[in-house]
């Protein structure tokens, strides 16, 4: 007998998932990238964080509107099916299951291992790091597959823990900076002259990737209590809280050290700021918080990864749907889908290592699997938003036209940003993407899809 997923998650857990998935390792090093892109202009940097936040919030709000109308197994796939039909939904689900979830999950496992190696003094690209990354993948899989309730509690706990250093720096750094004049100095001093438009464009690219991840929370749509009420609140509230935390943390950093010091510090810039405010002990504790932050993000990504192929199988689509739609009667988890997701994570982790961490194994076909899949999902949002504007005639003008238009602009920006940032690697990625999608067409059930 088939067992259906239970309504197990509440509003607090859903908000924690949105915040916890978005706020990861990126917030600790994107500040320096934004400063360098804007020439050390604090005003321009804050503007970049605001623009990136608006893109995130607008897309989240548009999906929140759809969440009040559609509620099935997997949020993004549901929205694609409701607006463009089952065939488009199948390919969105196939992409999410085979590329989006496993690529980001594998990269976060490596990032978590990387900061662990920094703390322990191990090489960040050697065998030790990759071994730890594999262990983190397996541990995260086990937590989600064997005890989903515990995984939810872990998500809430890590979200609270990772917010501690951010909030402390936002408050104490700002107070210290106002007292010693550092914030005023950083607001009125530009380290180097840059083209404002080009600098802002590059900076928003950095913030856009730091903001990514909120959409994964829609994967628990069918497991969320009172989803039509709670998912919109979680999406909009979680993304808004994230933007506010990013901006306040960014200002707090400016109260700790001069912008030119942050710009020269590279990835250690945040550590330097924490050492200035909280002594050398604070710098060491920062790495502990970063690791916890990364693991919390990894947990949220794995949650979506374990349900990836299940979202297709539940519709009778994809390879062996009768196998992958099975839900374990004891853990109430799609066990076969979870194992398949872990396997894909391992494959993409191996690819990431060969393409980015050593002498490229794949030549022309080496690309950054941590960023381009994100841009692809934004591209897939575009027809969903367009059809929503066309079909949902019962919505208000703001919900039907204004919000989706802003979201569309954000999606188009992401595509342009990817071409600007990755250049020829985009072509290599699109070839591999095309092969995987063609392979997916083999498993599309014509009777069900058409």
UniProtKB/TrEMBL annotation:
Keyword Membrane among record annotations: yes
Major subcellular site: membrane
Transmembrane segments: 9-29, 41-67, 88-110, 130-151, 163-187, 199-220, 232-252, 272-298, 333-352, 372-389, 401-418, 424-443
GO molecular function ontology, one term from the record: L-amino acid transmembrane transporter activity
Subcellular location as annotated: Membrane
Keyword terms: Membrane, Transmembrane, Transmembrane helix
Name of a matching Pfam family: AA_permease_2
Protein's name according to its UniProt entry: Aminoacid transporter
Organism of provenance: Clostridium scatologenes
Phylogenetic placement of the source organism: Bacteria, Bacillati, Bacillota, Clostridia, Eubacteriales
């Amino acid at each position: 007998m088939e067992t259906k997923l239970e309504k197990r998650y509440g509003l607090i857990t859903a908000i924690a998932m949105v915040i916890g998935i978005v706020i990861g390792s990126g917030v600790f090093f994107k500040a320096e990238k934004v400063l360098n892109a804007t020439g050390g202009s604090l005003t321009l940097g804050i503007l970049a964080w605001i623009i990136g936040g608006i893109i995130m919030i607008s897309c989240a709000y548009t999906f929140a509107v759809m969440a009040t109308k559609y509620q099935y197994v997997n949020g993004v796939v549901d929205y694609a099916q409701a607006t463009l039909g089952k065939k488009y939904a199948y390919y969105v689900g196939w992409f999410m299951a085979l590329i989006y979830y496993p690529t980001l999950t594998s990269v976060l496992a490596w990032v978590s291992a990387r900061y662990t190696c920094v703390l322990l003094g191990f090489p960040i690209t050697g065998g030790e790091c990759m071994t730890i990354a594999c262990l983190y993948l397996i541990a995260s899989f086990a937590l989600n597959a064997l005890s989903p309730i515990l995984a939810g509690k872990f998500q809430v706990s890590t979200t609270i823990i990772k917010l501690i250093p951010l909030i402390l720096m936002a408050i104490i750094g700002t107070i210290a900076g106002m007292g010693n004049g550092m914030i005023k100095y950083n607001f009125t001093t530009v380290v180097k002259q840059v083209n404002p438009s080009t600098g802002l464009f590059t900076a928003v690219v950095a913030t856009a990737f730091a903001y990514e991840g909120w959409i994964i929370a829609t994967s628990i749509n069918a497991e969320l209590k009172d989803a039509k009420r709670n998912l919109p609140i979680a999406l909009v509230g979680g993304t808004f809280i994230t933007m506010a935390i990013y901006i306040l943390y960014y200002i707090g950093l400016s109260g700790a050290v001069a912008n030119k010091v942050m710009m020269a510090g590279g990835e250690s810039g945040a550590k330097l700021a924490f050492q200035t405010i909280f002594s050398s002990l604070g710098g060491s504790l920062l790495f502990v918080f970063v690791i916890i932050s990364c693991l919390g993000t990894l947990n949220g990504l794995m949650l979506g990864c374990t349900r990836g192929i299940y979202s297709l199988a539940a519709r009778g689509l994809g390879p062996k749907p009768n196998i992958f739609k099975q839900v374990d009667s004891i853990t109430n988890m799609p066990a076969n889908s979870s194992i398949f997701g872990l396997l894909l994570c391992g494959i993409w982790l191996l690819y990431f290592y060969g393409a980015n961490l050593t002498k490229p194994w794949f030549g022309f076909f080496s690309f950054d699997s941590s960023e381009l899949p994100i841009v692809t999902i934004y591209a897939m949002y575009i027809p969903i938003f367009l059809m929503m504007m066309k079909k949902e005639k019962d919505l208000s003008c703001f919900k039907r036209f204004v919000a989706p238009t802003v979201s569309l602009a954000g999606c188009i920006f992401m595509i342009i940003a990817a071409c600007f940032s990755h250049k020829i690697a985009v072509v290599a990625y699109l070839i591999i993407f095309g092969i995987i999608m063609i392979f997916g067409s083999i498993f599309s059930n014509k009777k069900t899809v058409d």
